[in-house]
Amino acid sequence: MNWLISPAAVLFLLLYVQAAQGAVLGAGDPAPATDLSLKNEVQHAIERGLGWLEKNQNPGGYWSQPDHPALTALVLTAYMGEPSGRMRSKPPEFVQKGYRYLLQCVKPDGGIYVRDMANYNTSVSMMALLTAANPAYEAVIRNARNFEVGLQDDFDKKGEADNPLDGGIGYGGKYQHSDMSNTMFALESIYYSRNLVQDGKEADQAKELNWQAATRFIERCQNLPGVNDQPWASDDPQNKGGFIYFPGDSKAGEMVLADGRKALRSYGSISYAGLLSYIYADLQKDDPRVVAAFDWLQKNYSLDENPGMGPEGLYYYYHTMAKSLAAYGVKELVLADGSRVDWRRDLAKRLLNLQNGEGFWMNENGRWWEKDPVLVTSYAAIVLEIIYRGL
User: Is 77 helix (H, G, I), strand (E, B) or coil?
Assistant: First the structure.
């Protein structure tokens, strides 16, 4: 069974598609009915959020802080996905200034960072450069792609997945181990930049990720015995199919099962990151690993919290949810009680209700920088842009 909407089409949806929903849906699938009222509300919320961001750019061209270009890159990605396309077709000076700042962060090794978190900053910056669709950025993207590929972990015996962390990618720099979130960001940027290294000299000079090893790492973050060869993997109903942060570690902690065994808790945001990573690795919808992940996500669907984490990382959760479900190609989810929800409508209304009167979004819980309104407003705007294309 093929994806109804390919990962490449999600980027296309974010940037280019105005109305032709039927062009990306699987054969025989009716185009979703357009909700013009909600669509207009979503567009207005996006405009308010982007307007707030414009007012809060720093003189140096960056947003929030200069040491982490990923924060500026998320803002720029939000501008490039603005529904009318005007920011992309004719970028205003303040947007161009943001891109000039990103280019100032390019290192001789190809990475796009200042001091640390080299993978996170580079991969997110690559997406901002890709969404600009500017040929002038292609050489930078290719070099950054090679840098990203070079960050893939291979501990112990080289060429063998003999360490649970092999195949994944971490923050980079002083953070010396892989994790599911950083792996997702890296796979995303590597996946979407594939077309820039397919032919000629660029193909000859391109490094390629070990996708088999990457998939093995993703498996080792999933609570799915029989697929995950790690002893902690649990098939208890509360956790089966979901994901943890890296092999042996869950940010949601652990739980004691009825039989006395301990299980590492699966949680929402990282389970969407796991599903999306499987999609980037070209697994199909009927693959048991994908089926189990999607089943856990349906059973644990919530917009009130990041399942397993409460308010922590709530907007990152919304961000990974929107990208994952758009790539998966599903309109409705079937919840644990058998009810059905239109996730786009629900998530749109949730974000509309959470928007501040000044136009920004912010999480009252500060974990993972979510008290930074620049970061959170970027997340929310990108989510609403993805939703807008599907309404």
Answer: helix
pLDDT tier at 260 (50, 70, 90 boundaries)?
confident
- Cβ atoms of residues 89 and 34 within 8 Å: no
Q: Going from the N-terminus, what domains does the chain have, and what CATH number goes with each?
A: 7-390 (1.50.10.20)
Give SS3 for 317.
helix
The pLDDT tens digits of the residues spanning 128-162 come to 999 999 999 999 999 999 999 999 999 888 888 88
The span from the CA of 334 to the CA of 342, in Å, is 9
- Residues 295 and 139: their CA atoms lie apart, in Å, by 40
- C-alpha 185/C-alpha 26 separation (Å) is 26
For residue 370, give the nearest of 298, 309, 297 by alpha carbon: 309
How far CA 122 is from CA of 69, 73, 107, 112, 264, in Å, comes to 8, 9, 10, 4, 30
SS3 at position 360: coil
| pLDDT over 70 (residue 240) | yes
